[in-house]
From TrEMBL:
PANTHER family from the UniProt entry: HTH-TYPE TRANSCRIPTIONAL REGULATOR, METHYLPHOSPHONATE SYNTHASE
UniProt keyword DNA-binding, yes or no: yes
InterPro entries xrefs: Cro/C1-type_HTH, Lambda_DNA-bd_dom_sf, RmlC-like_jellyroll, RmlC_Cupin_sf, TransReg_Diox_bact_type
GO CC annotation: cytosol
Name of the protein this chain belongs to: Helix-turn-helix
Organism: Roseospirillum parvum
Pfam family name, one: HTH_3
Stretches of the chain forming a coiled coil according to its record: none
SUPFAM superfamilies: lambda repressor-like DNA-binding domains, RmlC-like cupins
HTH cro/C1-type domain mapped to chain residues: 11-65
Record key words, sorted: DNA-binding
SMART domains: HTH_XRE (SM00530)
Length: 182
């Protein structure tokens, strides 16, 4: 199943589960109804910002918009997977593994080209992110507790407040685990 088809199916499922009309969800997420309609039809190329806005409006983890039956084993080689790009910066997040039903732990690879900078809105209350720098140097964390990290450094921080991901070198890569309360 293509990423757009997964997103379309998940959006319809979560919107219906929340008892929201297309118009109501679009308003909550700050999107045009036509944009949401296209996404539910499996059309368009949604940005990270659009999908975060929808997940927040639905009150679900970001990864819930990509859930499919999890196989026993999965292999995603470097450069594979479907990166979701930000609108105005060379930032891409690739979901590597979702926690699955009853689990709220998702694994992402963040690619921060050049001086990519992405300011993220707060995730649901109690969300914590674990970041390990695999390549390059980055600045990340809550705005009031930003840290500079180099290859091999680990940082755990509260992500239920505005936080930042910023590349400080060419082609920085971060392995990010996001934990949300169940």
């Amino acid at each position: 199943m293509t990423p757009n088809a997964l997103i379309a199916r998940a959006l319809r499922r979560e919107r219906q589960h929340a008892g929201l009309s297309l118009s109501a969800l679009a308003a909550r997420a700050g999107l045009a109804k036509s944009t949401l309609s296209q996404l539910e039809a499996g059309q368009g190329n949604p940005s990270v910002e659009t999908l975060w806005a929808l997940a927040t409006a639905l009150g679900v983890p970001f990864s819930q918009l990509f859930q499919s039956p999890n196989p026993e084993a999965a292999l995603i080689r470097a450069g594979e997977g479907t990166p979701l790009s930000a609108q105005a910066t060379p930032f891409a997040a690739t979901l590597l593994a979702a926690g699955g039903p009853g689990r709220r732990r998702d694994l992402y690879r963040l690619d921060l080209a050049g001086a990519a900078r992405r300011q993220a809105e707060p995730h649901p209350a109690g969300t914590v992110e674990h970041a390990v720098v695999c390549q390059g140097r980055v600045r990340l964390g809550p705005l009031e507790a930003l840290e500079e990290l180099a290859r091999g450094d680990y940082y755990r921080y509260a992500a239920d407040r505005v936080h930042l991901y910023q590349g400080l070198s060419d082609d920085s890569v971060v392995l990010l685990v996001m934990e949300s309360p169940a």
